[in-house]
Write a structure and sequence with these properties.
Elements (H helix, E strand, L loop, with lengths): L6 E9 L5 H9 L17 E7 L2 E7 L9 H15 L3 E6 L7 H12 L4 E5 L7 H14 L4 E4 L8 H10 L18 H16 L9 E7 L2 E8 L4 H6 L4 H18 L4 E8 L2
Parallel strand pairs: 1-3, 1-4, 4-5, 5-6, 8-9
Antiparallel strand pairs: 2-3, 7-8
This protein binds guanosine-5'-diphosphate and magnesium ion (MG).
Guanosine-5'-diphosphate binds next to helix 1.
């Protein structure tokens, strides 16, 4: 009998904040599993996105951007990223070629790359940078760090993603699949809906709201209620806006994305609360 053995592996997506990691995971698995923002540190938990094709399954994990571990919270976050990549089969290190890296960041990246196996250099946002510049950057980073392969992609424009998937698939270990063929993530709808609304808050409100707002979601058939918890009383009117315009716009955009995700109409109610 001719049985094709299944392959399955873990691929972590790492790099500095704003490099395009979340955009990449969403476009690799063709579904919004992680939220995008120009604001740094929006991805708080390690988020999984699953890609399955013929006999191969790739489990991607999006991580919060690497940050200099200055506070206890950041130290924990940073440790979580390192643990995650340590267990991965491949580590994609994503760079924004428009951004210079500091000496401290260089050290952190070196440590990350040293403790991970199969590191791939991913130069993202090639739609914004000249080819000659990209080659220079590739040379520089390959000299600085120990990469097995280099890819130049645009996560946003979906350029170079198929090639990346092909190479990853060729390196997957023989393993049982962990997810069903049709699964794209292991997150519950409640979590995904909260993340969608969090993304809209960041899109519509700039500096006044910190990234550590909490959103909870309750689903009651077609009625969804979300509580947005802010830390300070002063943040509440900012979220609500003049005559409730801000919160209305947040709700409209979130509802649109949620409906697209589950393919049916819903009623969305948002409530802003001060967390104790
Ligand atoms: N022009 C361009 N922008 C991108 C690309 N990939 C990501 N971005 C933008 O970069 C910003 C940060 O993206 P995000 O995925 O949240 O980065 P993360 O912090 O690494 O997860 C967003 O505004 C994205 O739209 C790309 O390939 N080209
Ligand atoms: Mg992100």
């Amino acid at each position: 009998m001719n049985v094709i053995e299944k392959k399955c592996g873990f691929v972590s997506i790492t790099g500095l904040p704003n490099a395009g990691k979340s955009t990449l995971i969403n476009n690799l698995v063709n579904e919004k599993v992680s939220i995008i923002s120009h604001k740094v540190q929006t991805t708080q938990n390690a988020i999984r996105g699953v890609f399955t094709k013929s006999h191969s399954q790739i489990i991607f994990t999006d991580t919060p951007g690497l940050i200099l571990p200055s506070t206890f919270f950041k130290k924990q976050l940073s440790r979580a990223i390192f643990n995650n990549t340590y267990e991965s089969d491949i580590n994609l290190v994503v760079f924004d070629p428009n951004r210079k890296i500091s000496e401290k960041e260089k050290e952190i990246l070196k440590k990350l790359i040293r403790t991970s196996k199969n590191n791939f250099l991913i130069i993202n946002k090639i739609d914004l940078v000249k080819k000659t510049e990209l080659l220079k950057i590739s040379k520089k980073y390959n000299h600085l760090f120990d990469f097995q392969k280099t890819f130049m992609i645009s996560a946003l424009k979906k350029k170079g993603l198929n090639e990346l998937i092909e190479v990853i698939m060729s390196k997957l270990p023989k393993n049982k699949w962990l997810y069903d063929k049709k699964d794209k993530t292991d997150q519950k709808n409640e979590f995904i809906f909260s993340e969608i609304t969090r993304e809209k808050v960041f899109q519509l409100i700039n500096k006044e709201i910190p990234y550590d707002i909490t959103i909870t979601t309750e689903i009651n058939s077609n009625k969804i209620t979300q509580f947005i918890f802010v830390k300070k009383t002063s943040q509440k009117p900012i979220l609500i806006g003049k005559e409730g315009k801000k919160i209305k716009e947040i709700g409209m955009r979130a509802r649109r994305d949620i409906q697209k995700k589950i393919n049916r109409r819903i009623y969305l109610e948002l409530k802003v609360k001060i967390s104790k």
